[in-house]
From TrEMBL:
The keyword Metal-binding applies. One of its GO terms (cellular component) is cytoplasm. One of its GO terms (molecular function) is metal ion binding. Keywords: ATP-binding, Cytoplasm, Kinase, Magnesium, Metal-binding, Nucleotide metabolism, Nucleotide-binding, Phosphoprotein, Transferase. Belongs to the NDK family. This is Nucleoside diphosphate kinase. InterPro entries: NDK-like_dom, NDK-like_dom_sf, Nucleoside_diP_kinase. The gene is ndk.
């Protein structure tokens, strides 16, 4: 079994009709989608998701944004999946992201940066369990 990570297509990605474009890039990179759903988080749900960032200057703003519209959330799996998905996304700040990455191509703001990905195995486990129960993970 490869390494699992959580992916979110954020409200800006959904409203700009980038769901298909993002998923194509994931599949081309060999990141397998094990589970997927569209949700709309409440402010409190967004705060729980971004708990690791509690107290940071952008915490209020990013949780407002993440609860402002629907998101597509997915569990991805691949060998070295966390690092490979982060490379595909590009740097958090799209201005620093490498050419050809999702954020460089589509992001418009450090906050409205189209996608989220877990940054460690520990956070991936927390994030996956935050959104999905065992019955929702199809496996393949
Ligand atoms: P994400 O990878 O989802 O993790 C935290 C999010 O907070 C980040 O992407 C950005 O959307 C948002 N954010 C806003 N400002 C900052 C900042 N200065 N540093 C890091 N993340 C930020």
């Amino acid at each position: 079994m490869g390494e699992r990570t959580l992916s979110i297509i954020k409200p800006d990605g959904v409203s700009k009709d980038l769901i298909g474009a993002v998923i194509s890039r994931l599949e081309e990179e060999g990141l397998k989608i094990l589970a997927m759903k569209m949700i709309r988080m409440t402010k409190d749900e967004a705060k729980g998701f971004y708990k690791v960032h509690e107290g940071k200057p952008f915490y209020e703003s990013v949780t407002d944004f993440m609860s402002s519209g629907p998101c597509v959330i997915m569990i991805l799996e691949a060998e070295d999946g966390i690092r490979r998905y982060r490379k595909l996304m590009g740097a958090t700040n799209y201005k620093e992201a490498e050419k050809g990455t999702i954020r460089r191509d589509f992001a418009t703001d450090i906050e409205k940066n189209v996608v989220h990905g877990s940054d460690s195995r520990e956070n991936a486990e927390y994030e996956i369990n935050y959104f999905f129960n065992a019955l929702e993970v199809a496996g393949r």
